[in-house]
Amino acid sequence: MISAPDVVAFTKEDEYEEEPYNEPSLPEEYSVPLFPFANQGANPWSKLSGAKFSRDFILISEFSEQVGPQPLLTIPNDTKVFGTFDLNYFSLRIMSVDYQASFVGHPPGSAYPKLNFVEDSKVVLGDSKEGAFAYVHHLTLYDLEARGFVRPFCMAYISADQHKIMQQFQELSAEFSKASECLKSGNRKAFAGELEKKLKDLDYTRTVLHTETEIQKKANDKGFYSSQAIEKANELASVEKSIIEHQDLLKQIRSYPHRKVKGSDLCPGEMEHTQGQADHASTTSNPDESADSDIYTCRPAYTPKLIKAKSTKCFDKKLKTLEELCDTEYFTQTLAQLGHIERMFRGDLCYLLTSQIDRTLLKQQHITNFLFEDFVDADDRMVEKQESVPSQLSQDRLPSRSLEECLIPKVLISVGSYKSSVESVLIKMDQELGDEEYKEVEVTESNSFDPQENLDYLDMDMKGSISSGESIEVLGTEKSTALLAKSDSQASLTVPLSPQVVRSKAVSHRTISEDSIEVLSTCPSEALIPDDFKASYPSAINEEESYADEGAIHFSASINPLELSEAQEGGLENTPPQIDSSCCIGKESNGQLVPLPIPAHTLSDEDGVVSIPPQRYRQKDQHFHVDFAVENTNPSQDNSCETFPAYELDPNHLLASRDVSKTSLDNYSDTSYVSSVASTSSDRTPSSAYPVSLSSERHKKRAGQNALRFIRQYPFAHPAIYSLLSGRTLVVLGEDETIVRKLVTALSIFVPNYGHYAKPVKHWVSSPLHIMDFQKWKLIGLQRVASPGSAGTLHALSRYSRYTSILDLDNKTLRCPLYRGTLVPRLADHRTQIKRGGTYYLHVQSMLTQLCSKAFLYTFCHHLHLPAHDRETEDVVASRQLSFLKLNLGLVNEDIRVVQYLAELLKLHYMHESPGTSNPMLRFDYVPSFLYKI
Amino acid sequence: MLRWLIGGGREPQGLAEKSPLQTIGEEQSRNPYTELLVLKAHHDIVRFLVQLDDYRFASAGDDGIVIIWNAQTGEKLVELSGHTQKITAIVTFPSLESCEEKNQLILTASADRTVIVWDGNAGRQVQRVSCFQSTVKCLTVLQRLEVWLSGGNDLCVWNQKLELLCKTSHISDTGISALAEIPNNCVAAAVGKELIIFRLVAPTEGSVEWDIIEVKRLLDHQDNILSLVNVNDVSFVTGSHVGELIIWDIPGWTVRAYERSFWDPAPQLDVQQEIRLCQKPNDVSIHHFTCDEENVFAAVGRGLYVYNLQMKRVIACQKTAHDSNVLHIARLPNRQLTSCSEDGSVRIWELREKQQLAAEPVPTGFFNMWGFGRMNKQATQPVKKHQENGTSCSLELIGDLIGHSSSVEMFLYFEDHGLVTCSADHLIILWKNGERESGLRSLKLFQKLEETGDLYRAA
After folding, report:
1. What class has domain A695-846+926-933?
2. Which one, out of A283, A501, A540, B416, has a CA that is 20 to 30 A from the CA of B42?
3. What ranges make up the beta strands (E) of B219-371?
4. What order do you get walking across the sheet with A729-734 strand by strand?
5. Is there a contact between B258 and B245 (Cβ–Cβ < 8 Å)?
6. How many whole angstroms separate alpha carbon A192 and alpha carbon A202?
7. How many CA atoms lie within 13 A of A101 on its CB side?
8. What angle do CA B436, B442, B448 make, to 5 degrees?
9. Angle at A45 between CA A40 and CA A50, to 5 degrees
10. What is the DSSP secondary structure assignment for residue B78, as one 8-state letter?
């Protein structure tokens, strides 16, 4: 049975100008029910489109040389998550789409076995039968005992939502690359260790054999050698050869280009401090394995063993586990990274996208966003800043991010539409991605294809897939998409290939095949060969090219002559043993048909541009994890505490939001995830990178609701809010702690932050206030005690009355300066139609963002603050400021104060990027206060 | 719907409760200090503030530590600890290398009977003198002679290398309470009710030794002398516990002017004695002086008095300037006077001159003036003092600074950075002109933008 999601994606979006996130409207003839389970009366999010698993998970599989594809572990390691989903079967599927020919062995023309440093391949595939779509990341690890020294592995992100995989491809790719890089560097280390041991063994064996030969020689004075002696000599010779071979391998593995390694932030050597978190993650997922590996890692000085000649490859020998292959340290770190990926992409796609857009926009106003945005996000930005990112990269980051943001969603839909029909894979392993010119040439050549020809090939594909019963459709490769990113428009112009025709074929095709795996996108398996390596192993390069073009030869005649000749050579010389025949179906180097328009440089430069923004999520995430384990309190607070340990740490806040922390606990511990129809919120709310944001989300909603209530209940809400916005401390005085806390929390959404730490809000205090408190806090909940001891409290309050506005909850009075502006009435309209707390919160946020931009303009307008010439007096400047505020920014009366206060905060923040070091100053005005009553 | 009647809650419902005490209210348009920064580092009463240079000052107090601060940023620069008991006096002393660089030495005397010399720049202890028989209660530096004096039970003269040059014999068990440099290489030391003038003899061709000789003992004060300040080349002024203000002629050591009526609020001259008895002497004790060319400003009890040197009269006064004793006053530019008090507040006054018509009925007696002021019965109203030439002055409150929760011991005025106050609540507060600070921050902001190359000027 073919489920509709397969088809949905394969619709053409004709207009690129359309709204990027809109589902493209289907032509009539293809109007299939969008959501096949809708008639069951369930809501679309309740169960992910009939998949057998309850939510997304990560699967690590291996193509074992003994038992074939087998699943190794899942993240989260919880049977509830994947439910009845057949991991074995899916492992088979995902392992079977690995095209890369990572060959180690004796290539012809080379004396010694050779290692290829093979780039990972990244494939997106869909399995309609299982209702699963997966981003599959293939990688190869080295194992001295394995066949050909390689152990193919893959990590798959499995989701029921195809769009999610496609639209988050870039992020997934970047994140998984990091995990893979970590595994591989660990593996290289372990492999080198293995080789060293083996060399010691061999050396020892040689010595032993040598002694034996000598003894035999001495024993034999007859002048001829016995067969035994000859055998020994042969053995010795083979050992010698083996030594040379292994030495060579060791040299190769050590000469692995460090360019790759540097880019990876997961190298344990460089990031020792992350170990704690990694360990934590490992214990959650695989405690047994890590226990085993401890023995392995702390191995004592090695005692060489005698190696028997003709050491037989026995199939019953136990292959090394993944952990053994990669060194425990690296392995646990990889698991931590994978756990992070799982959390990062948890939730509904629209949620992911919205939060991504949100973050991008927030990042764009990085100067002002500290004022009112959640310090969680701001905090995040701090971590980002701390990273040792090359300056150039960090400069490039913003534009490139926004580019992705705009491009990906728009074109990904068309990815589906094209790809389903014209399965094209460009596999050219030898090509360096940075080689732009080469690509250009290729693209133009491929543009000249006869479309009809294309379709013919297509038909061929169909046949192939039908006959095989199980078809795998490769829909695109990352590399070819990279090409297209540059020549997208050009290509679509030159090739008048009707998408409709294509689509019909695709659909019909789909009905035939019983169960199909559609490979939607892959990235090229690109061999990475250092220059010196190329020189010493010229044949190796050839070898790869032959593999690369092998597939293409079968189906495409349109490869340029040069490639073709190369390919034919390769094909004649060597038939790749590992490539599944079905993999080769539908490979064409037809660039324009593979529109995954990711900017070329972002892909080729994976270490840099792409990987940076997600990296910080990881770090942050781990912070969160650690804190969580230790304190088990509100995560948002934890974050703030961590950054500013001494300052602003308000334990009361933690108390206030204990319920929030509980919910977040439920949502963030992997095991307690409950998949149910009712779990929609937990499915949606965890944003990609911010596990913390869930709690703050609830927090926001509640705060918004209470703020709304306050505005409706108190007619003097406006001056109270004005006090907060203009930086005058508002003291909420009351007897009942819960009421005061609730109101303080609600009003805290109007409090501007000093910087990237917790808001200057004190929820509950019972001791008399001090001048320091007004400097530190902008919103204080104060206990009113009936006892005479409280006289001091009230006395202090009246003494410092010029610094405060006092909201008396018991008497329902407010004492604060007059407000006559227009800003707050819009912000807090008691007749507002907004009903929901979350909506109101967003309303406030948007209003405040507007306010922030005004403050930004005011702060950063040069002529407003500096005299235009020497003779200009301060008064002139001041009047210019005032007229700007009034006329250009449209501020009335006290609104000016608000913008001025925000401007001061902006200045301070801009001057001291680390606000913890500088003291916040208390600004105040000498203005009369009035007493408001209900 | 009461809300609608009230008009959306935007209308003021009434004025805030007004303090019955003398207050200026919350509208202080002429008070420039709209920004404050609390500096917290001391653990006990902060009693002394001393300016080091244009942007630094040192604070010292009962916790025995000296802290050097940046007056601009409020940054704590150095903490100097060495005294085991409270600090009793602090002075700055430009060191020998002062011409090359601003290397300020700080001298502190403590109740642990030591004097420590600190290097303010390096933030270290230079030397320590611990041969004192008693607590050094006052220190003074004679810049011209490059010596400093310590006053305890005796008076010692030291040079910059901390060598004892000479000392007096044991003067008194109570010790010297105040010490001031007066012209002609003389110092005035207040010992109880007595005022002793010493002359310092610098080594000349005749003698290689320093010497200090007692010149004169002045016994005109009836109670302990609390304050002592040099006015100009020909006079200095002392104030006592019972409100006697005496201006002395320097060469002759004679009383030039004697004023002892501050404490007398009554219009009747004849009941002066009784009133004096029923009044707490503390209310009229003269705690501090400051002076300029024309006037001597005295902190008398809770009030402030301006005494004109030329007219030899009090030209303006504010009898209850504070709720409690005024501890320190200082003259600020623009004819402003600042006072701080035990009530924890700092007040800024302005001395205003008013031309009065001579035709106005002028009471004849000096003390009748007080009666005139009294009739207003408004503590906030400045008491006007009419003079023969028709000039009257008034001290008008233009602002108050409320921040400290305990008595404000001292303050320091920086031309560029505002006011620094220290208090018994262990805090130091930097009061700044908010507008100016805002402008400065803008300036810095654009400087930074320029440095980072982010500043684009419109063509």
Report:
1. alpha beta
2. B416
3. 225-232, 235-240, 245-249, 255-259, 286-291, 295-300, 303-308, 313-318, 326-332, 336-341, 345-355
4. A761-765, A779-783, A729-734, A804-808, A813-817, A929-933
5. yes
6. 15
7. 29
8. 140
9. 55
10. E
Phi (first) and psi of residue B11, to 5 degrees: -85, 140
Across the interface, whether the CB atoms of B13 and A933 are under 8 A apart is answered yes
Q: Is A834 exposed, middle or buried (0-12, 13-18, 19+ CB in 10 A)?
A: middle
H helices within A87-168, ranges in order?
87-95, 162-167
B31 touches chain A (CB under 8 A): yes
Interface predicted TM-score (ipTM) over 0.90: no
Cβ within 8 Å, pair A717-B9: yes
Please give the pLDDT value at position B88: 92
* Test mutation, A794, A815, A823, A921, chain B, max B CBs within 10 A: A921
Domains of chain A, residue spans: 57-100+113-220+228-254+315-347, 695-846+926-933
CB of B162 within 8 Å of any CB in chain A? no
CB A54 within 8 A of CB A678: no
Residues A508-519 have pLDDT tens digits of 333 333 444 444
Tell me whether residues B446 and A865 touch, CB distance under 8 A.
Answer: yes
Between residues A867 and B345, the one the model is more confident about: B345
Contact A473, A519 (CB under 8 A): yes
* DSSP letters for A290-358: HHHHHHHHT--SPPP-PPPSS----TTSPPPPHHHHH-HHHHHHHHHHHHHHHHHT-S-HHHHHHHHHH
Question: Does position A280 have pLDDT exceeding 90, yes or no?
Answer: no
CA distance A856 to chain B (A): 12
Give yes or no for residue A545 having a pLDDT over 50. no
Distance CA B420, CA B56 (A): 11
The interface residues of chain B toward chain A in range 238-297, judged by CB-CB distance below 8 A, are: none
pLDDT band at B273 (very low <50, low <70, confident <90, very high): very low
Distance from CA of A378 to the nearest CA of B (A): 21
- pLDDT tens digits, A303-349: 777 766 554 454 556 778 888 888 888 888 988 888 888 888 887 88
Task: Examine the pLDDT at B413 and tell me if it is beyond 60.
Answer: yes
Q: How many residues in chain A?
A: 934
Q: Which residues have CB under 8 Å from A101's CB, separation 6+? A: A429, A525, A544, A547, A548, A576, A578, A579
In the predicted model, what is the mean pLDDT of residues B89-118?
78
Q: CA of A388: how far to CAs of A262, A395, A440, A756, in Å?
A: 12, 13, 34, 19
Interface with chain B: mutation pick from A710, A926, A929, highest number of B CBs within 10 Å? A926
Residues 6+ apart with CB under 8 A from B433: B32, B33, B34, B35, B418
Q: Which residues contact A173 (CB under 8 A, 6 or more apart)?
A: A122, A135, A137, A478, A523, A603, A606, A610
Distance from A606 to chain B by nearest Cα, in Å? 29
Burial class (CB in 10 A: 0-12, 13-18, 19+), A15: exposed
Instruction: List b or e across B217-256, with b for residues whose CB sees 16 or more CB atoms inside 10 angstroms.
Output: ebebbeebbbbbbbbeeebbbbbbbbbbbbbbebeebeeb
Give the model confidence (pLDDT) of A639-664 as tens digits.
333 333 333 333 333 333 333 333 33
Q: Domains for chain B: give ranges and CATH numbers.
A: 39-262+280-316+401-451 (2.130.10.10)
